[in-house]
Amino acid sequence: MLAVQLTTNFTTLFRKTYRKRMLFKSTNLFGKRQVDAIIKGFGTFDGVSGLQKAIGGKMIPGQLEMLKESIGDFTQGAVAEESKVIRDKASRDKEVIEEIKRKVAEERADKKEKAQVAKELKDNLSRIEAEKKAAQLVLDTERNAEQAAKLAVLIRLAGEAAERRGVESIHRGRYV
Q1: Residue at 55 is within a domain
Q2: Are 3 and 39 in contact (CB under 8 A)?
Q3: What's the domain count of the chain?
Q4: Which residues of 81-111 are buried (b: 16+ CB within 10 A; e: fewer)?
Q5: pLDDT tens digit at each of 176 positions of the chain
Q6: How far is CA 46 from the centre of its chain?
Q7: Is 18:33 a contact under the CB 8 Å cutoff?
Q8: Which structural domain, as residue segments, surrounds residue 21?
Q9: Is residue 138 included in any domain, yes or no?
Q10: In degrees rounded to 5, what are phi and psi of residue 145?
């Protein structure tokens, strides 16, 4: 892209400078070798003198200024645009990575919350089961005490009935 821009701009300058037909072409003064030298040293030139050393050879009036301007336009235009595209892509990539990290963190939090809820549910079920067992134990104890009281009454009544009939009671001393 820079090579095409440099070649086109030099050809335009050459035609403006030499309006009459010449025995040589613009590519004889500024060809592939000079373009390759500029591209190879791109960004390392020390002003116009560094650019002149890099391409060497015969110069036409205004050539160095035109080359410097073309390189500046390229740097401000295409390179700046490419740099902006790269920065934008990096920014989008960073946003995507942050979004993925956020989703992963949310999934972890959801998973942790679900595990916590499941644990609480299990604990509640265990507590309810323990309360049921304790309530059943209390009911069984009360029922056993009630049955023991009824049995004592029945034993006492059987002993009293045996004494009234004159039969010695086998329950003597067992009833209160």
Answers
A1: yes
A2: yes
A3: 1
A4: eeeeeeeeeeeeeeeeeeeeeeeeeeeeeee
A5: 677 777 788 788 777 877 777 777 777 677 777 777 777 777 676 777 777 777 776 777 877 788 778 777 777 776 677 778 889 999 999 999 999 999 999 999 999 999 999 999 999 999 999 999 999 999 999 999 999 999 888 888 888 888 888 887 776 655 54
A6: 45
A7: no
A8: 2-88
A9: no
A10: -65, -40
